[in-house]
Amino acid sequence: MVDHGTPEGLTAENRRLVKEVAQLRAELSALRAEAPSSSVDSATDPTPVTNLTNPEIARYSRHLLMPEIGVTGQLKLRNAAVVVVGAGGLGSPCLLYLAAMGVGRLGVVDHDRVEVSNLQRQVIHTERAGELGVTKAQSARDAVARLNAACRCTAHEIHLNSDNALELLSAYDVVVDATDNAATRYLVNDACVLLDRPLVSASALRLEGQLTVYHHRGGPCYRCLFPEPPPPAAVTNCSEGGVLGVVPGVLGTLQALEVVKVLLDVAPDAPPVLMLFSAFRQPTFRAIRLRGRQPRCAVCGPDATITHLLDYPTLCGQAQHDGPSTLALLPANQRVTCSSYAAAARARVPHLLLDVREPVQFAICHLPGAINVAWSELPGRIDEIPKADPIYVVCRFGNDSQEAVQYLRQAGYSTARDLIGGLHAWSASVDPDFPVY
Ligand SMILES: Nc1ncnc2c1ncn2[C@@H]1O[C@H](COP(=O)(O)OP(=O)(O)OP(=O)(O)O)[C@@H](O)[C@H]1O
Ligand SMILES: [Zn+2]
Q: Which residues form the Rhodanese domain (predicted)?
């Protein structure tokens, strides 16, 4: 019996084979080093599947019939690992299509929980009993399992940050950014450049969407296009600005398409583009051709200064304007709680209630007797505000109302005060029947 444990124990034929394998390994690593960064080898599966099973042939027959996909293409999907960061409006359709099309391994990263206001667009989550309130990552993983049990889907129920991103993302071949904030966008971009992973990135807001594949085939990264984060005040998200349900549906579906194109290496010579979508305009789609990698890019340029992940929330000045207020711009004597205001209103103490939300929001719900002048219009319409005593100013979360009180006081309205926490606090502390949006 031949001892395979030591080279000394090998037969001449075995020694020849060992040498050949070593040679092939060396050739493979040389080819990998030469290959452009676009070529995607599975980062995680050392033993790729080489044949489809009969159930797989039946399941993916409509793919297999197409020469553009065929068995080779289907096997590439089967052997790929794709991670989707964000299981919201974009991530939902993207994950569903990737699972349905037969991507072998998926990861879904999201720290948030499913809320009823998500269901208008985040179609991977449902109103089924028990589903509201679970983490989006878990809900998405369960939906993937229902759709395609053969797809191995890992739920990462965490907030992706500088401490965990490199390790987490390195386990996947392609990264999909389906999130909604600048800090995560820069984080994911930098991590993809450092890990040399293609990044399929999209955004959707109101009626508009954008999509690009970054750091792919020598193309630009997100920082090449947007070297500096935008000022926080210029950033709006869906909970502030709204979004038509189907808009992230279109963009997230296109992200799944771009993942397939990356995995199958479709149109390798196509230049990088920024795809723009506008739901109510003609043409609905436009593509802007992008320049290549920028030599001065801080993360992907030849003199890159970013060699490790940074503190992205601080860099992006991520002030939360879209959630319950923690901002305290005003001194305590210029603020009242919702309960004190409720008591004064019940006692019919004369006052003026000024609601500074946009008119579309005022139309959703408002407190009795409120007048509406949006914060954005206040400077131009200040003459419409009577000099009442006192003036209470309210908004949705209690942020804009504080800025409006500051402005009013500077304009001579010395009795203006803000309702702490806005209408969200009203609903939580005074009237649970008051609608929350
Ligand atoms: N750093 C991050 N790590 C993990 N998940 C993230 C990160 N940043 C954003 N997300 C997730 O990305 C998703 C973005 O989706 P989307 O904007 O449709 O949802 P949303 O935040 O629930 O919406 P809304 O603004 O209406 O509350 C969210 O589920 C959010 O939790
Ligand atoms: Zn770059």
A: 347-435
Domain that holds residue 383: 332-429
In total, how many domains does the chain have?
A: 3
What angle is formed at CA 230 by the lines to CA 227 and CA 234, rounded to 5 degrees? 160
Q: Which residue has the higher pLDDT, 44 or 367?
A: 367
Reading phi first (left if > 0) and then psi (alpha if -120 to 50, else beta), residue 102 is in: left
User: Which of 260, 282, 315 lies at the terminal end of a domain, its last residue?
Assistant: 315
Å from CA of 178 to ligand 1 middle: 8
Query: Which residues are tagged catalytic?
Result: 238, 395
Same-domain pairing of 104 and 66: yes
pLDDT per position as a tens digit, 302-338: 999 999 999 999 999 864 444 565 678 999 999 999 9
* Same domain membership, residue 232 and residue 207: yes
pLDDT digits (tens, 9 = 90+) for 115-161: 999 999 999 999 998 889 999 999 999 999 999 999 999 999 999 99
| ipTM, interface predicted TM-score of the complex | 0.99
Instruction: Output the ligand 1 site: residues, CB below 6 A.
Output: 85-89, 109-112, 117-118, 122, 136, 159-160, 179-181, 184, 237-239, 248
100 C-alpha to ligand 1 centroid (Å)? 23
Write the pLDDT tens digit of every residue in 253-285. 999 999 999 999 999 999 999 999 999 999 999
What is this structure's pTM? 0.84
Cα 295 to middle of ligand 2, angstroms: 8
Same domain, 256 and 341: no
Q: What band does 3 get if pLDDT is binned at 50, 70 and 90?
A: very low
